[in-house]
Amino acid sequence: MPQYMLLIYTPVDGPPPGSDPEQTAKWFEYTQALQDAGVHIGGEALQPVDSATTVRVRDGETQIIDGPFAETKEFLAGYYALDCPDLDTALGWAAKMPNIHYGTTEVRPVVDFSKVMAEAAQAEAQQQ
Fold first, then answer.
1. For 6-43, how does the pLDDT look when each residue is reduced to its tens digit (9 = 90+)?
2. CB of 68 closer than 8 Å to CB of 75
3. Rg of the chain over CA atoms, in angstroms?
4. What's the CATH number where 15 sits?
5. What pLDDT sits at residue 97?
6. At CA 78, angle to CA 94 and CA 74, rounded to 5?
7. d(CA 29, CA 61)
8. Which range marks the domain in which residue 25 is found?
C-alpha cells in the first residue's frame, strides 16, 4: 500500500505544542483514530523551531547555523507517516488534523524505492 507523509506546519506566533491540555488531548485522539484505522506507521511532534540547527556544505565547507535556515511564518511542528490505499484517503486524514483550522498540512507520497528498482530492472531486461 502507498505511504504518505503528513507534514504539520504551525504558525510561528501560535501556541507551543503541548502547552494547551485540551488541544493535546485532541492530538492524542487523532493519533488513536489513525491507529484504530490501521493507517498509522509513526509520527512525532518536534521541539520548537528555536531548537533547530541547520547544516549545509557549500564549496567543501560545512556550515552549522543555529535555528532554522530561513525565516518563515510557519514552521514544521511534526509529522505522521501513514500507510493508505490512496492519496484521497491520506488527504481525508489530513483534513481531520486538530490544527487544520489555523495550521497547514502538506501531504506527500513516499518514494517506494523497491518499486523504482524493480521497474529499472524490468526496463533493463527489456533492453537486452
1. 999 988 887 777 788 999 999 999 999 999 999 999 99
2. yes
3. 18
4. 3.30.70.1060
5. 95
6. 85
7. 45
8. 3-127
